[in-house]
Automatic annotation (TrEMBL):
Residues 1-14 have a biased composition (Basic and acidic residues). Residues 42-61 bind DNA. It comes from the Bacteria. Pfam families: TetR_C_14, TetR_N. The keyword Transcription regulation applies. Coiled coil: none annotated. This is AcrR family transcriptional regulator. It comes from Sphaerisporangium krabiense. The lineage of its organism: Bacteria, Bacillati, Actinomycetota, Actinomycetes, Streptosporangiales. Residues 1-21 are annotated as: Disordered.
């Protein structure tokens, strides 16, 4: 008697197709933003380039801003953080998790990452959304640090540590964008997180 089909196969295929569509929409959007400007590019133009309907665009990205802002890094970082050995301190575990995630995504998506960061820093509306995103990421990092240290996620020191990590990321991304392609973003991320881990000696 043959084995029944695995129940996860259709769902897995659907998720891969959704991820492929989401990636295509984002890639075409970033290309159009680069070619003709963010403000001059419409959702209808993005949808046409990606060969989807405007309603499909909005199923994946609620606004035009979201097509630049959205990524899946936070859950990837959380999963990598949970895999780190208990022998590592909270910042050392964060540094290891970041190294794992950003090395992987940078190798696959360097061009997309650079386009997104450059757009975010050049468009006021996107910079404002970035602040919202950073606050959400800080909350997620605080939860991870709290779990590892046995403290509350609302503990001021936990929140400050999460905020310091966010600040270090911003410094690394700024240096990467202005330095051209002579340095890798994962290397800069590791450098600034090592600086935090060492107690920020100046």
């Amino acid at each position: 008697m043959s084995s029944p089909p695995r129940a996860d196969r259709p769902a897995g295929l659907r998720e891969r197709k959704k991820a492929k569509t989401r990636q295509a929409i984002q890639e075409h959007a970033l290309r159009l933003f680069t070619e003709q400007g963010y403000d001059a590019t419409t959702v209808e133009q993005i949808a046409e380039a990606a060969e989807v309907s405007p309603s499909t665009f909005f199923r994946y990205f609620p606004t035009k801003e979201d097509v630049v802002m959205r990524d899946d890094y936070d859950p990837m970082i959380a999963a990598a953080y949970l895999r780190q050995p208990a022998s590592l301190g909270p910042l050392a575990a964060m540094r290891a998790a970041m190294g794992e995630v950003f090395t992987e995504v940078f190798e696959a998506d360097e061009r997309t990452i650079r386009r997104r960061i450059e757009l975010i820093w050049s468009i006021p509306a996107l910079r404002a959304r970035q602040v919202e995103g950073q606050l959400a990421t800080m909350a997620a990092l605080a939860s991870m640090l709290a779990e590892r240290t046995g403290r509350s996620a609302d503990d001021l020191r936990v929140r400050a540590a999460a905020g310091a990590v966010i600040g270090a990321w911003i410094a690394a991304m700024e240096r990467w964008v202005v330095s051209g392609r002579d340095v890798s973003l994962p290397a800069l991320m590791d450098e600034v997180l090592a600086f935090l881990e060492e107690g920020m000696p100046l």
